[in-house]
Design brief:
65 residues; mainly beta; Beta-clip-like; two-stranded parallel ribbon; globular; SET domain-containing protein; transcription regulation; chromatin binding; transcription
């Protein structure tokens, strides 16, 4: 599933459209965090690394499910 809860009202479904980060996996020890940012009045999902990552590091974050 490529679902991301934006807020209590909206869910983003990236199954058919999205970028490569839609494939970021869940981890109990993630290297990044997902944040919802407001850009030009629209909600956007950002995946932000906690530190500089070595090339080839898998990007993971906590899905909170």
């Amino acid at each position: 599933s490529y679902l991301f809860n934006l807020n209590n009202e909206w869910v983003v479904d990236a199954k058919f459209r999205g970028n490569k980060l839609r494939c970021a996996n869940h981890s109990e020890e993630p290297v990044a965090k997902a944040k919802v940012l407001l850009v030009d009045g629209e909600s956007r999902i950002a995946i932000l690394a906690d530190k500089n990552l070595a090339p080839g590091t898998e990007i993971t974050y906590d899905y909170r499910y």
